[in-house]
Amino acid sequence: MARPIIIAPSILASDFARFGEEVKAIDEAGCDWIHVDVMDGHFVPNITFGPQVVRAIRPYTDKIIDTHLMISPADPYLEDFAQAGADMITVHAEAGPHLDRSLQAIKAMGKKAGVSLNPATHESVIEYVLDRLDMVLLMTVNPGFGGQSLISSVIEKTRRVKKIIGDRDIDIQIDGGVTVETAPKVVEAGANVLVAGSAIFKGESVDDYRREIENLRKAAQKAQ
Ligand code: DX5
Ligand code: ZN
């Protein structure tokens, strides 16, 4: 049975001067999750925002706030994101030496736990933490910036991760370069959660966002 397609717009591509209104707009436009790309200027060559932005947008949506921590170390900040209202907290396998401990800490706070793999990271890193995971995030670009093209070698990695996961209750999320053209390829390989920034926020109105979200959903569902 295929897992439901989940569309998670990344607010990295939204208007930074209007986070609340933008989150309200994509919520009304029918997104499933809100993807929050946290960057520290150390783990990735860009700085975005911290737990305060999660706290600020929380009142604007009841949907899952899916926080992608492109930071190292991540452990000192997990509690801040959990208390700010994050529902899903994803850490990078490359962000520190104790991935199992980070995932245990997230679960202990009652949150869903994800691990993210950069394009060059081998899928075997998830083998000993499968029982801690709710999601595997496969980066299809090198993290730091939106608007990049999908790295096609990660499509094969998606297939291999799907095989490792088997019928466990674990989502596979794709982040980077997701469009109506690339979405079917990653869904056919086994992904079901699609992060999209530039493909969704290229419009301005709720109707624009609704059209892009639905086009992406339809393209993905056709490939299941
Ligand atoms: C990279 C970011 C991007 C972003 C999606 O660090 O994680 O992947 O969310 O950007 P688009 O959809 O514009 O490629
Ligand atoms: Zn992301």
How would you describe this structure to a colleague?
- It is a single chain.
- By secondary structure, the chain is of the alpha/beta class.
- The protein is built from 7 helices and 8 strands; from the N terminus they run βαβαβαβαββαβαβα.
- Helix 2 (51-57) links the parallel strand 2 (33-39) and strand 3.
- Helix 2 (51-57) packs parallel to helix 3.
- Residues 10, 35, 37, 68, 175, 195 line the site of zinc ion.
Overall, the morphology is globular
* Count of discrete domains: 1
Looking at the overall shape, the CATH architecture is: Alpha-Beta Barrel
Under CATH, the homologous superfamily reads Aldolase class I
- The structure class reads alpha/beta
Low-pLDDT stretches:
none
Summarize the structure.
The protein has 224 residues and is an alpha/beta fold. Helix content is 31%, strand content 19%. The protein has a single domain (6-222), classed as Aldolase class I (TIM Barrel, Alpha-Beta Barrel), CATH 3.20.20.
Short key terms for the protein model shown above:
224 residues, alpha/beta, TIM Barrel, 7 helices, binds D-xylitol-5-phosphate, binds zinc ion
